């Protein structure tokens, strides 16, 4: 982690406020995802990065917003850094990841970005340009 983080944990109240606003849609998206992988082939990041599972859109959603939801917003700075990595370096929000079950994966990744921003966990410009 490049930036020094405060001694206090992330603001759970702010995180929960964001999660609560999207609770129904988020909960449904996480429950409905069949992990079928049909969203993956249309994701250019997944395809160009050797089709590694961590680049699958469903994997990115589950390991970002899913992690925040599962932990009820009670996360560490390290967890937010991991989510930042997924939300900015592994997804460009291009909306190409079509889900036949109707899950709006980019919207969920965007929510993860929003929560990271609310905690001042942001990518450095140089980090966004790394391969």
What labels would you give this structure?
131 residues, mainly alpha, 52% helix, 8 helices, 0% strand
Task: Give a summary of the structure in a few sentences.
The chain is mainly α and 131 residues long. The protein has helices at residues 12-21, 23-32, 44-48, 57-62, 65-70, 77-89, 105-118, 125-128. Helix 1 (12-21) runs antiparallel to helix 7 (105-118) and helix 6 packs across helix 7.
Layout of SSEs?
Elements: H1 12-21, H2 23-32, H3 44-48, H4 57-62, H5 65-70, H6 77-89, H7 105-118, H8 125-128
Structure description:
The chain has helices at residues 12-21, 23-32, 44-48, 57-62, 65-70, 77-89, 105-118, 125-128. The chain has eight helices and no strands. With 131 residues, it is mainly α. The protein has a domain at 35-122. The model has no long low-confidence stretch (mean pLDDT 91).
Instruction: Tell me the distance between the termini.
Output: 18 Å
Biggest β-sheet description: none
Low-pLDDT ranges: none
Helix and strand element order: HHHHHHHH
Total helical segments = 8
- Beta-sheet strand percentage? under 5%
Integer-rounded radius of gyration: 14 Å
Q: What is the share of helical residues?
A: 40-55%
Q: Which shape, going by the Cα principal axes?
A: globular
Structural class: mainly alpha
Number of strands: 0
User: Average pLDDT value?
Assistant: 91
């Amino acid at each position: 982690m490049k930036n020094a983080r405060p001694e206090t944990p992330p603001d759970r109240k702010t995180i929960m406020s964001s999660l609560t606003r999207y609770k129904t849609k988020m909960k449904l998206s996480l429950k409905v995802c069949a992990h079928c992988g049909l969203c993956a082939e249309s994701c250019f990041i997944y395809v160009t990065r050797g089709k590694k599972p961590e680049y699958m859109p469903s994997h990115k959603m589950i390991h970002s917003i899913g992690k925040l939801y599962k932990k009820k917003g009670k996360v560490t700075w390290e967890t937010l850094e991991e989510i930042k990595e997924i939300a900015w370096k592994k997804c460009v929000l291009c909306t190409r990841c079509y889900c036949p079950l109707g899950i709006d994966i980019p919207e969920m990744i965007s929510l993860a970005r929003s929560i990271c921003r609310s905690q001042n966990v942001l990518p450095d410009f140089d980090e966004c340009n790394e391969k």
